[in-house]
Amino acid sequence: MSSASSKDQPSTSKESFDVFYSEVKEIEKRDSVLTPTQQIDRLLRPGSTYFNLNPFEVLQIEPESEVADIKKRYRTLSILVHPDKNHDNKERAQMAFDIVARAWKILENDLARKKCLDVYEEAKGRTDHMIAEKRKKLKKEGRPTEPIPEDDPTKYKHAIYVMVMKLFADMERRRQKLDQRDQEERKRKRESEIEEEERVKADREWQQNFEESRQNRVNSWHDFQSGASKSKKTKKQKHMTGMMVPPKFKPESR
């Protein structure tokens, strides 16, 4: 009996996942008719920082929707929350509008959208693995037929939803960490450049001061030599002049 139950598990898991998407679609249909104020409140509700990391969650559209449908949904939602349509709530409307625009910018890019879809696939894979581990533990404890919470499609859906949020949050933390590391690296590089610039400037000033002081020393030495030469010449001239003057004649006394 336990073998039959084990064989049915993949089918049950797929059915649960199909139910999950069906329910999500119904929720999206219900939420799609929210008023502008309700949409703004939804996008700015407590915890929205984490909810809004998922662009599909922001636009309330299925992950596997076509780009044309995503774009149509974006336009509809952006009009609802546009600041010009919400004069009494312009500031919050602008914040909501920016969130919607950012979600569309991600999903219109093929590579970025593929990464988001990969998050959903990974979330489902991790959830299914977690369920398999729970069943394995129950089987080991001799309770193979005992149900687990995720047998309920609603709880299975919630488990995947929580895992999707966790994975998007992990991605955002890694991005912030890389940004911080990049900023620190650029800061260190700039500090190193400034230090090198100051060193080169100091060397240049020292060399300039040295050249100026050397020239002053040379000029001083030339002035000294020139002064000493003039002094010797003057003394020599005086000496020669003294030798050329004849002695005064003294009359002979009688």
Automatic annotation (TrEMBL):
Stretches with biased composition (Polar residues): 216-228
Q: J domain spans which residues?
A: 54-121
CDD domains per the UniProt record, alphabetical: DnaJ
Positions with biased composition (Basic residues) = 230-239
- Name of this protein: DnaJ homolog subfamily C member 8
Can you cite an annotated GO cellular component? nucleus
**InterPro entries given in the database record:** DnaJ_domain, DNAJC8, J_dom_sf
The UniProt regions of compositional bias labelled Basic and acidic residues, in chain numbering, are 176-215
- Map out region (Disordered) in residue numbers: 131-154, 176-254
* Origin species: Drosophila lebanonensis
Q: Which residues cross the membrane?
A: none
